[in-house]
Write a structure and sequence with these properties.
With 144 residues, the protein is an alpha+beta fold. The protein has a single domain, classed as Zincin-like (2-Layer Sandwich), CATH 3.30.2010. The chain is built from five helices and five strands; from the N terminus they run ββααβββααα. The strands form two sheets. Strands 3-5-4 form a three-stranded mixed beta sheet. The chain has a two-stranded antiparallel sheet with strand order 1-2. A hairpin with a 2-residue loop joins strand 1 and strand 2. The termini are close together.
Length: 144
């Protein structure tokens, strides 16, 4: 399950696990405050069509600075039970969790425009997992 999002000149991971990927050495890390990045994530969420956001159920979106230490280039992570796997047993559970990681995104992007584009791809990718869309289908749709 390895999604890849094409960003001009390199390939970057936007999903669950990290395998080899090409990421340009951009020199100094792009500067963006946590608040600015959270706003980009909120804007990406706002661009999701309302007919889809109405279907989202029991999911929370978080921004964290760094991913788990064993996957330092991870851009986003979905943890939970996809809507397609929920049954009558699904009640009283904690919300699914989508986490978008700020620092790996800033390390791989060369400009604010790159960050905006990559954040949007990552948010859509992780929401797709909430809907039960696997990486193969995401690749076919152009999100990997």
């Amino acid at each position: 399950m390895i999604p890849y999002a094409q960003v001009p000149g390199r390939i970057c991971d936007a999903g669950w696990l990290s395998y080899g990927r090409v990421v340009a050495d951009n020199g100094p890390v792009l500067e963006m405050t946590r608040e600015e990045f959270e706003e980009l994530v909120a804007e990406a969420l706002d661009r999701i069509p309302p007919e889809l956001t109405r279907l989202m159920d029991n999911v929370a979106v978080f921004v964290e600075d760094e991913p788990p230490a064993d996957d330092p280039e991870l851009l986003g992570l979905y943890e939970g039970t996809p809507l397609t796997d929920r049954g009558e047993w699904y009640a009283g559970v904690l919300p699914d969790r989508i986490t978008i990681y700020r620092n790996p995104t800033l390390r791989m992007c060369e400009s604010r425009e790159d960050v905006v584009a990559e954040t949007e791809v990552t948010v859509v990718h992780e929401i797709a997992h909430h809907f039960g869309i696997d990486d193969e289908r995401l690749h076919a749709l152009g999100y990997g």
